[in-house]
Description:
Layout: H1 2-41, H2 46-70, H3 79-91, E1 93-102, H4 108-118, E2 122-130, E3 135-144, H5 149-158, E4 162-168, H6 177-190, H7 194-203, E5 207-211, E6 236-238, E7 241-245, E8 251-255, H8 263-279, E9 287-291, E10 297-303, H9 308-317, H10 320-327, H11 338-342, E11 347-354, E12 359-368, E13 371-378, H12 387-401, E14 406-412, H13 416-423, E15 429-434, E16 437-443, H14 450-453
Antiparallel strand pairs: 1-3, 1-4, 2-3, 5-8, 6-7, 7-8, 9-10, 10-11, 11-12, 12-13, 14-16, 15-16
Amino acid sequence: MTEQSSVHTHRRRHHWRRDLVELAALFTAVAVADAVANTVAHGPEGPELLLLSAATLLATAGFHTWWSRRHSHAPPVPASDTGATARAADSGSALWRMRTTVRDEPGSLATLCGAFAQARVDILTLQTHPLAEGTVDEFLLRVPASLQPAELTRTVADAGGSETWLERADPHDLVDAPTRVLNLATRTALDAAELPLALRQLLGRCTIRSRPAKSLAGSGLAGSPAGDGTPPVEGVLEETVMRLRDPSGGVISIERPYLPFTPTEFARARALVELDARLGPRIPHRSDVLTLPEGNEITVRRAGTGDLAEARAMHERCSADTLAQRYHGPVADADRYLDHLLSPRFGRTLAARAGSGRLVALGHLLWDGDETEIALLVEDEWQRRGVGSELLRRLVELAREARCESVYVVTRSANTGMVAAMRGLGLPLDYQIEEGTLVITARLAPLPEPAAAALPVPAPHAGS
Length: 464
């Protein structure tokens, strides 16, 4: 009722203004006509001219009436349409990321965009991924909340799209693709350990694994013409798997089973890996000086392969029991793990040094496929002084920044120090015990960032 009343009021005000203008024009015309009539009547052939002027005025008025009716203003929006628009605005909208394949023909994209317009779907960003046959179009869409994913997929199918896939997006995804890639390149340039994380940000939810060229036993890994497990320099793309040569040796394997990679994505990933190769090994040089409860100071900073010699020296100072709790295997093999652990490709390592500069503890955050492991080694002399707890807290923060959903530690069930340190985090913990081995998993609260909240929502294929 309110909407209808406002529309009718608006129309009445409009007609009164128009009537007043026409009335003023009429009085003006009468005055002018009277003046002309007086002038003509007192001159020769006055009556004839007066009749001609009257006929001209009548013809002009008739033409004006016909013209006004033919070119009148468009009628106001019906109250029902106004109400529907208001309800759509009140119900809000949702952001979706969509991929669909269209024919590589003129007008294919225009047809798809027209279908979006009919469904009141707003296109915020668009990227194209050319294929040998057809083109993959990637959209960021603002969709009315009332439009269900299945309806949106059917709309795309009717417009010629196929192999359509949807996932929920976030307002932070509004950053355009070039800016996003430049930000990822900057992160990679500052820290070699960022490469796996940058690839995951670039390609979405995927599993990234780094495999060394040789196993810990020294044997080569099969799977390449060279026999050492490494792909060609240009890499290999196989539908949902891409393999790239790791600049530090070995293979970076990226899998995304739910969505095939496009040649465009493969080229972007390869360019990011090439940047990492050209810059060489690098880690941030920031360090923090901390005071332990007993008053001693330690320095915590990132560690890398350059700290290999000091890490081996610390192994020699550790007892066999300490090494066994950390590596869960023969103590003699402990040194062989260090190359892998200190490589930035497999995670991040924090080193704690005493005031004298001697390395006294190592903390590792290791990328394990879709999971993340934390491992600690503290020299016997520095145990139960808070060093391990400090490293653990910092590693958890690094995992949270990397948008990990959880972290886990593997230790002996008798390692009460590690159990106490995990409980001290104040996080929800899960425990699994098997044959004396204890696995403690901590679930991390996500940061307020898009990648932590945007979970893919499967949608049916366009042909279904």
